[in-house]
Amino acid sequence: MRSLIDIADLSVEEIDGLIATAEDIIANPDKYAEKCRRRKLATLFYEPSTRTRLSFESAMLELGGQVIGFSEAQSSSASKGESVADTARVISCFADIIAMRHPMEGAPRVAAMNASIPVINAGDGGHNHPTQTLTDLLTIKREKGRLDHMTVGCCGDLKFGRTVHSLLGAMSRYEGVDFVLISPEELKVPEHVRADILNASGVQYRETESLLEAMPQLDILYMTRVQRERFISEADYVRLKDTYILTPDKLTNAKPDLSILHPLPRVNEISVAIDADPRACYFKQVLNGKFIRMALILMLLEVQ
Ligand code: NCD
């Protein structure tokens, strides 16, 4: 039995396989409509979510399965003091697979160690978000036709932004990928990402504070929100939140086939004036999130 806690839990071949399954689901949805009949997904969300939770739920429903769960810690027994380990054991009695989001780094791993069913990390604190990365990879594959030989710019909160950490972990394994990491000094990637992903893989990367300077090189621009909920000081958040605001004039020197991604929710960092630009991919990305989660559920439940 397998869980997905970190994107490194999947080999490149497995990631490519999930993308191929998702593309087949997009082409032949009827073939998959009954694959998870009588199976249940439990969504255990201890932190706010719109896309991730509802895309997991709609993924399971479109596979013919059913969904149970909670969307806030307050309405679960966590508010009475139950541990994640005990909750994981309990939910194993009711469901076939768990998707868990938790503010504490490592909580889904604790759940996986105690559950008797697969656990999917749907975001743990400022750490990882592997299913957002699968979503991002499917989007890049569909936009560009490949996942190798490209320059990926990640812009914004690279310190607390868990989606960036997982994306770097995945894309650093594809040939010919290099990164431009665009952030203010205080929001640079954390040391564990630098050591365990960037330096360990030997991937090419450079850091800059200037989005404009980086723009002409980029094939992918991955914008992120400054993660207010992870700041200790509100004043620091207020000072940093609008460091980058992508407006149409900033795209003047961008490649014509740039793809602009954002895991969403967006706050101010992409002007709505960009939405109509054909290079804006963030709403397509949302839809891809459902298809790749369908593929992942099938894989972890070992449904043929
Ligand atoms: C992201 C997350 O939760 O980390 N959202 C998502 O799952 N699409 C990004 C964010 O909240 O900024």
Specify the CATH homologous superfamily of the largest domain: Aspartate/ornithine carbamoyltransferase
For the termini, the CA-CA separation is 15 Å
How many extended strands? 9
CATH architecture identity of the largest domain:
3-Layer(aba) Sandwich
The CATH class assignment of the largest domain is Alpha Beta
Average pLDDT figure: 97
User: What gyration radius follows from the Cα positions, in whole Å?
Assistant: 19 Å
- Shape label: globular
Explain this structure to me?
By secondary structure, the chain is α/β, with parallel strands linked by helices. It has two domains: 7-128 and 289-300, Rossmann fold (3-Layer(aba) Sandwich), CATH 3.40.50.1370; 131-285, Aspartate/ornithine carbamoyltransferase (Rossmann fold), CATH 3.40.50. It has ten helices and nine strands. Helix 5 packs across helix 10 (282-300). The longest helix has 19 residues, at 282-300. It starts with 11 loop residues before the first helix and ends with a helix. The model has no long low-confidence stretch (mean pLDDT 97). The protein binds N-carbamoyl-L-aspartate (NCD).
Provide a brief overview of the structure.
By secondary structure, the chain is of the alpha/beta class.
Write the layout of secondary structure elements.
Elements: H1 12-27, E1 40-45, H2 51-62, E2 66-70, H3 84-92, E3 97-102, H4 107-114, E4 119-124, H5 130-144, E5 150-155, H6 162-171, E6 177-182, H7 191-201, E7 204-208, H8 211-214, E8 220-223, H9 234-240, E9 259-261, H10 282-300
Parallel strand pairs: 1-2, 1-3, 3-4, 5-6, 5-8, 6-7, 8-9
Helix pairs in contact: 1-5, 1-10, 2-10, 3-4, 5-6, 5-10
